[in-house]
Amino acid sequence: MTVWTMRACLAILLCAPSAAAQLTYGFPGVHVDVGQPVPPVLVGFLLTDAQGVITVPWSSWPSSQPGADWFFQFGVLDAGASHGVALSNAASGTEPD
User: Fold this and answer.
1) How many domains does the chain have?
2) Residue 54 is assigned to a structural domain of this protein
3) Distance CA 52, CA 42 (A)
4) pLDDT confidence of residue 62
5) What are phi and psi of 88, to 5 degrees?
6) Half-sphere exposure of 83 (CA within 13 A, CB side)
7) pTM over 0.90, yes/no
């Protein structure tokens, strides 16, 4: 029997330093018009470091559904951003078999 450990890391750079942030992730990807609420599967609350970086490593995927698509997006409090929150581009990943 061979056991594989799939490690991954999600990171965001060039954010406001020492700022509160939210990581929203879930599946499947749902395409909706801006302003329509979509309930995420999970939400994590984090802080950027002094350089404005957040790194979220993990040693295994959040489910046991090989082939599942996961979608991630950060929101970071930033006084210089529109409405005081900077949103990252959405990222996606497919859970390996």
Assistant:
1) 1
2) yes
3) 23
4) 61
5) -80, 165
6) 5
7) no
Question: Using CA atoms, how far apart are residues 86 and 79, in angstroms rounded to an integer?
Answer: 9
Give the number of C-alpha atoms closer than 13 A to the C-alpha of residue 55, restricted to the C-beta side: 6
Check if the beta carbon of residue 89 is closer than 8 Å to that of residue 42. no
CA 12, CA 74: separation in Å to the nearest integer?
A: 8
Instruction: Determine, yes or no, domain membership for 58.
Output: yes
Q: Is residue 4 one of the residues assigned to a domain? A: no
76-86 per-residue burial string, b: 16 or more CB within 10 A, e: under 16: bbbeeeeeeeb
**Per the structure block, which two tokens stand in for 94?**
């497919």
Burial class of residue 12, CB neighbours in 10 A (0-12, 13-18, 19+): buried
Read off the amino acid at residue 37.
P
93 vs 12: CA distance, rounded Å:
15
pLDDT along the chain (97 residues), means of 10: 52 91 74 53 85 84 73 89 88 79
